[in-house]
Amino acid sequence: MNKHAAAAWLNSIEATVDQILQRVQGEIVMAIPLGLGKPNPLVNALYRRIAASPERRLKLFTALSLEKPQGKSSLEAHFLEPLVERVFGDYPDMDYVKALRAGTLPPNIEVHEFFMKTGDYLGNDGAQQAFVCTNYSFAVRDMMSHGVNVLAQAVASRTGTDGRTEFSLSCNPDLSFDLIERMQAQGRPLLAVAMVNHELPFMPGNAVASPDLFGLVLDGPGCSHTIFAPPNAAISWADYAIGLHAASLVPDGGTLQIGIGSLGDAIAQALIVRDGNSEHFKTILSPLCHGELQGRELDKFEQGLYGCSEMFVNGFMRLIEAGLIRRRVFSDLDLQELALQGRMPANPSLQVLQDLLQRRRISSPLREADLAFLSRHGIFKAGVSCSADQLQLGEQSIRNDLRDPAALAAIEACLLGPSWLGATIMHGGFFLGPRDFYQRLREMPEEQLALIDMTRIGFINELYGDALGSEALKRAQRVKARLMNTTMKVTLLGAASSDGMESGQMVSGVGGQYNFVAMGHALPDARGILMLRSTHDNADGLRSNIVWSYANCTIPRHLRDIVITEYGVADLRGCTDSECVKRLLNIADSRFQTALLHEAIAHGKLEADYEIPAAAQRNSPEMLREHLRPWRNSGVLPDFPFGTDLTADELTIVRALKKLKHASHHPLELVGMILQSLSGEKPVPPAYLERLGLADAKSFKDLFVRRLFASNL
User: Fold this and answer.
1) pLDDT confidence tier of residue 662, bands split at 50, 70 and 90
2) Contact in structure between 471 and 350 (CB atoms under 8 Å)
3) SS3 category, 414
4) Which terminus of the chain has a lower count of CB atoms within 10 Å, N or C?
5) Taking CA 348 as the corner, what is the angle to CA 346 and CA 351, rounded to the nearest 5 degrees?
6) What integer pLDDT is reported at residue 100 of this predicted model?
């Protein structure tokens, strides 16, 4: 497809499906974005059409297919129904997701994902067999190897100042630009289809695209719908402890990557506490570190931070609003190096112009190329031109000589721009968050929104140069980077499993984790930080997440760097194997330390008489609660620091249901709960029983469940 050819505009989903089927003969291999950027109504219509046409084939290549939550029990289903209706509105689930879950995918349709919604497809043979294991930054290459010939994407739309329609890839500029450009470079046909969803926030900067980038544009009835918005999760005791440790490793003036969920929110809240009251922060953190705060970052942020993360999440939004994410980076190396030297003031200045002249980035007299550069970055106002030996703006005419004091004074008075253009405080590849996150983006003033640049994943996840910047520029922007990711298991020798089980079953995918861990080693003052809860509890009982060995490996031990659990920080960089084992034992749950110690000794990695330090032998959930309870009760570390979509009554019901679910996996606990419930049925608000479908309970099972629920309120 010629990128300069005019797009065909359609207002019917079915007519667009007709066009796709006519333009692409044979098998359709369709790439659709990760997460929010999928054009759900269009994909569903195409899916149904091909499912009914066995002579045609469809292969979907995507990641993170989102689906409205459904209860796994009748209690959960009753509880979720009004919540889902309120929060998710008319969000249309993907037909292929339902079929994949049910094992009813038609034989002429394939679905390949390179990152799956966490844990959703364990035990699903179809999804597991079709999984493509690849780095996020390699996904375009691998789509092309599968023969992709259609790209379909949801876009935001607005009318520009010139009256023309502009598109924004909004939540997902991560892969689409690269896919289109690489296909064109190889002369391979690609039908790019845009579906306008007017609910998507319009993101400026590198997310903006001309409608002519696409061969088909769909904007009509049924296209706009509620954006998928997972509610904020409550932050647990363990997550807050991890977040506090992580926040104490972030240097002022640095670069930050964090992820979604309660752990990302815990880090953001801990950083806000640190910046707002550093003495409180020290007091909270000190007992978690056994009083050893040496080497931790504890003071407020004078310079601020720059966010560079494959995922722009609600935690980043709150850090922007709190003024912590405010360190500007520039898309030009000379400007960026001046920024690192502290020579880039809040707004363009004459000093910057003189610095650029001294660095020979511009010349005197200024050339046309210099003027274009200066205007592009806001140093000069738009419209400045040069003619003969004069600089001109409207009726103003100034001598074109940067060494003439009179000319400089006139330039300062008349030509300097009011603010920087193209400066960025946040780079993200895709975004996902709760409802108020999207609303904040929609309502954000244009000049502030311009500081958030949604861009290509290759720019963010890789250090080497690309279409948007050189390696030197990226290195200059990403100073003092703290690149934080979650993992599931860490071995005592420092390897990590973040995406799959020992059985080979995939839980999610590697995403960009490997890239950020490697980047933590490649940048001279960066650190790669892996975070995990020390234990997990399920039907198999309580297990340690720090283990001797694990068959699945996402991050190999030679890339070990920093590991955080709720019990502390293990700095593993450059350690011997024995020291690595000791440091990880120190942050393991004490209920598992002895067995882990003996295993390390048995394998010759630890001296036989080694003893774990006494302070580390008190690593327990009870210790955490003792230290953190005053701060949780005072509201400094609340369950939902950034709000919740759940009402107070819903939160009460959720807590009781969680207790029931936990007990169902632990027989002794369930027996105790049953005995407690037999002492007499507690009164329950009728609205709670109505919500759970227990108001008219008549069967023994329902009456029994109602009694158990009441005893847990």
Assistant:
1) confident
2) no
3) helix
4) C
5) 105
6) 96
Comparing CA positions, the residue from 413, 485, 420, 441 lying closest to residue 263 is 485
* 686/664 Cα distance (integer angstroms): 24
Nearest to 658 by CA among 88, 646, 106: 646
Q: What is the pLDDT of residues 686-697, one digit of tens each?
A: 888 888 888 887
Helix (H) or strand (E) segment spanning residue 338: helix 333-340
CA distance 79 to 657: 10
CA pair distance 528, 523, nearest whole angstrom: 10
The answer to whether 172 touches 39, Cβ cutoff 8 Å, is no
Contact 340, 478 (CB under 8 A): no
Q: Which of 66, 14, 23, 69 is nearest to 44 (CA)?
A: 14
Q: How many CA atoms lie within 13 A of 418 on its CB side?
A: 1
pLDDT tens track for 504-514? 999 999 999 99
The amino acid sitting at 146 is H
Q: Which residues contact 228 (CB under 8 A, 6 or more apart)?
A: 35, 36, 66, 68, 88, 91, 432
The vertex-8 CA angle with 184 and 146, nearest 5°, equals: 40
**Where does 466-572 have alpha helices with state H?**
471-477, 513-522
CA distance 580 to 655: 38
- How far apart CA 330 and CA 314 sit, in angstroms, is 24
Q: What is the pLDDT of residues 15-39, one digit of tens each?
A: 999 999 999 999 999 999 999 999 9
Q: What is the DSSP string of 45-101?
A: HHHHHHHT-TTS-EEEEES--------SSHHHHHHHHHHHHHHHTTPPPPHHHHHHH
Q: Are strands 255-257 and 481-486 parallel, antiparallel or unpaired?
A: parallel
DSSP-assigned letters across all residues of 197-214: -TTS----GGGEE-GGG-
- Coil, strand or helix at 556: coil
Q: Which residues pair with 159 in a beta bridge?
A: 165
d(CA 417, CA 412): 9
Name the residue type at position 117.
K
pTM over 0.85: yes
User: Quick one: how far is CA 319 from the chain centroid?
Assistant: 14
What pLDDT does 669 receive? 65
Q: How does DSSP classify residue 682? A: P
**378 pLDDT higher than 50:** yes
Give the sign of the dihedral formed by CA 521, CA 522, CA 527, CA 531.
Answer: negative
Terminal alpha carbon distance of the chain:
61
419 within 8 A of 406, measured Cβ to Cβ: no
- What percent of the chain clears pLDDT 70, i.e. is strictly above it? 97
At 5 the pLDDT is: 64
The CA radius of gyration of the chain, in Å to the nearest whole number, is: 28
Instruction: Find, among 386, 397, 382, 383, the residue nearest to 362 by Cα.
Output: 386
Q: Which residues contact 22 (CB under 8 A, 6 or more apart)?
A: none
What is the C-alpha to C-alpha distance for residues 449 and 447, in angstroms, rounded to an integer? 6
Strands (E), 274-425: 306-312, 385-387, 390-393, 396-399
> Could you give the CA distance from residue 76 to residue 692 in angstroms, rounded to a whole number?
8
Predicted confidence (pLDDT) per residue in 554-609, tens digit: 999 999 999 999 999 999 999 999 999 999 999 999 999 999 999 999 999 999 99
Query: pLDDT class for 152, splitting at 50, 70, 90?
Result: very high
DSSP conformation letters of 120-170: TTTT-HHHHHH-----GGGHHHHHHHTT--EEEEEEEEEE-TTS-EEEE-T
333 membership: H or E segment, kind and range: helix 333-340
